[in-house]
């Protein structure tokens, strides 16, 4: 039989563990860079060619529309193989990646994301020649989503 004291000690320990787990689940700039390096193999990221279109100031982080694209025509030798989106504060730094086959149309996707506060988002494009291109946008969020402050 569990005593009241044992129950309260166990509940306190469980609460402490959940707070530690919540803080550990948040990505960091270092975790974001590690996720980018995992996708790129540590290759040099060149600025340009890829475009991350997202409002720089959003009122609510629960649903933000963003578009990642490689504008303009690209020859077959430079076709886009993949587009990725990374963040530095959400629980997972690698938000998503989209791969394009040889018969794909324009390299572009639009989606809605949630953001856990003001942070930098990074879009990375991989081209057929093995080069990686990057665009970074700082997004200010006035009401965060994804996590709650303990």
Written account of the structure:
This protein is of the alpha+beta class. The protein has helices at residues 4-24, 29-40, and strands spanning 45-47, 51-53, 57-60, 64-69, 80-87, 94-99, 108-113, 119-127, 132-143. The chain has a single domain, classed as SoxY domain (Immunoglobulin-like). The protein contains 2 helices and 9 strands, in the order ααβββββββββ. Strands 1, 3, 5, 6, 8 and 9 form a 6-stranded mixed sheet that branches. It has a 3-stranded antiparallel sheet with strand order 2-4-7, with no helix packed on it. Residues 18-24 have low confidence and may be disordered.
Distance between the termini: 32 Å
Q: Helix fraction?
A: 10-25%
Report the CATH C-level class. Answer: Mainly Beta
Outline: elongated
Largest sheet: 6 strands, mixed
Radius of gyration: 20 Å
CATH 4th-level superfamily: SoxY domain
CATH topological fold name: Immunoglobulin-like
Order of helices and strands: HHEEEEEEEEE
Q: What oligomeric state is this? A: single chain
The total of beta strands comes to 9
Number of helices: 2
Strand content: 35-45%
Unreliable sequence segments? 18-24
Computed structural class: alpha+beta
Number of domains: 1
């Amino acid at each position: 039989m569990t005593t009241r004291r044992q129950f309260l000690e166990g509940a306190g320990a469980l609460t402490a563990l959940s707070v530690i787990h919540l803080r550990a689940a948040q990505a960091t700039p270092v975790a974001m860079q590690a996720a980018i390096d995992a996708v790129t193999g540590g290759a040099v990221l060149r600025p340009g060619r890829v475009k991350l279109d997202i409002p720089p100031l959003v009122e609510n982080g629960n649903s933000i529309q963003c578009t990642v694209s490689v504008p303009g025509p690209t020859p077959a030798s430079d076709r886009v193989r993949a587009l990725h989106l990374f963040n530095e504060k959400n629980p997972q730094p690698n938000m998503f990646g989209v791969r394009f086959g040889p018969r794909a149309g324009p390299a572009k996707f639009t989606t809605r994301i949630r953001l856990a506060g003001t942070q930098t988002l990074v879009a990375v494009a991989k081209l057929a020649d093995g080069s990686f291109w990057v665009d970074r946008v700082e997004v200010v969020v006035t009401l965060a989503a994804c996590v709650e402050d303990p």
